[in-house]
């Protein structure tokens, strides 16, 4: 018997889906019809796609499926934040988080199982890295959340914004992330405007340029320090792409997308990067990117970290210093920290391929993680 493996339709963007339908000997517009069922009505059963002919439904049944990830666990926080632990092939799991606010609802999506960048203040780093997520596993997070929340595309949106700020470095999983974001943007997909889909990167300079040529989305850059010595300590990737190069890439982004802004994320850690001199360095950095803004994030602690959250007065003073220099500076409210769903607290289940998880656990057991 010629057993052919079935294809997961969530792996295709619109173009890919059209090509797949062409291979099946179907008209491309049929692909678009099915796409609406999948993303507008969140339907994963071909049987229920009533305006698709019987013969085509049978053909689809035989060759493909709509396969979102399995929810292993989900939990709501007191403030309305919701977290899903989603099982991926191979025993791994990643987390997605929904953050409702009065005027919008933001879904935070993961791009990799674990992360290889080893930023010192992020709990995902302590889990090591396993692999990139497939397009279906990225857009599938949104599909699961949308279904759970009763999202209706173009009508009653619960998810108005998506941020690629979950586990992983999205620019290291470029093709799958871009495909998934194109489904977030597509009118036949989730139909979100470019301002409402944001990719956050630790600063992979060449990929920032590539992104600007590939798709229209918003950019956030995790800065955390505006001097190279400190940034290299916090974000080791800075060694490869130091601040001057990162800034040049951001300037090129703005030239290519003149009406957009870049958000610089800055996690405030007590006594590490929260002093007036650090704010001065940040102001100097931002002067060269006048249309951009700063998002301050109070550090979210996790077991074994050596960092602490800055005091609220220090955070306010830091913000005031930037505001006084006419830099648009927001303070991100800490959300969902009672269910470990806040920035930098996402862990999932990473079958680590590096030695990082084991090393971190060993240091925790020895009680030396704090001093590391
Ligand atoms: N790798 C990408 C996507 C992750 S986004 C990036 O670095 O941008 C997650 C955001 O939360 C980043 O800005 C990250 O630096 C920040 N973050 C990580 N750990 C944190 C913590 N413990 N507390 C607060 N923010 C943290």
TrEMBL record:
EC number(s) of the enzyme? 2.1.1.192
Assigned keywords, A-Z: 4Fe-4S, Cytoplasm, Disulfide bond, Iron, Iron-sulfur, Metal-binding, Methyltransferase, rRNA processing, S-adenosyl-L-methionine, Transferase, tRNA processing
Its top-level enzyme class, in one word, is transferase
Question: Catalytic residues per the record?
Answer: 95, 343
InterPro entries reported in the protein's UniProt record: Aldolase_TIM, Methyltransferase_A, RlmN_N, RNA_MTrfase_RlmN, rRNA_lsu_MTrfase_RlmN/Cfr, rSAM, rSAM_sf
- From the Swiss-Prot or TrEMBL record, state where the protein is found: Cytoplasm
Q: Where is the Radical SAM core domain?
A: 101-338
Q: Which residues bind [4Fe-4S] cluster?
A: 115, 119, 122
**Cofactor or coenzyme needed:** [4Fe-4S] cluster
Q: Does the keyword Ion transport apply?
A: no
Q: Which reaction does it catalyse?
A: adenosine(2503) in 23S rRNA + 2 reduced [2Fe-2S]-[ferredoxin] + 2 S-adenosyl-L-methionine = 2-methyladenosine(2503) in 23S rRNA + 5'-deoxyadenosine + L-methionine + 2 oxidized [2Fe-2S]-[ferredoxin] + S-adenosyl-L-homocysteine; adenosine(37) in tRNA + 2 reduced [2Fe-2S]-[ferredoxin] + 2 S-adenosyl-L-methionine = 2-methyladenosine(37) in tRNA + 5'-deoxyadenosine + L-methionine + 2 oxidized [2Fe-2S]-[ferredoxin] + S-adenosyl-L-homocysteine
* Short name of one Pfam family: RlmN_N
Identify the main location: cytoplasm
Give the note describing cofactor binding and stoichiometry.
Binds 1 [4Fe-4S] cluster. The cluster is coordinated with 3 cysteines and an exchangeable S-adenosyl-L-methionine.
SUPFAM superfamilies according to UniProt: Radical SAM enzymes (SSF102114)
What is one GO biological process annotated to this record?
methylation
Residues annotated as binding S-adenosyl-L-methionine: 168-169, 200, 222-224, 300
Fill in the misc note: Reaction proceeds by a ping-pong mechanism involving intermediate methylation of a conserved cysteine residue.
This chain's function reads: Specifically methylates position 2 of adenine 2503 in 23S rRNA and position 2 of adenine 37 in tRNAs. m2A2503 modification seems to play a crucial role in the proofreading step occurring at the peptidyl transferase center and thus would serve to optimize ribosomal fidelity.
What is this protein called in UniProt?
Dual-specificity RNA methyltransferase RlmN
What is the species listed in this Swiss-Prot or TrEMBL entry? Dyella nitratireducens
Organism lineage reads as:
Bacteria, Pseudomonadati, Pseudomonadota, Gammaproteobacteria, Lysobacterales
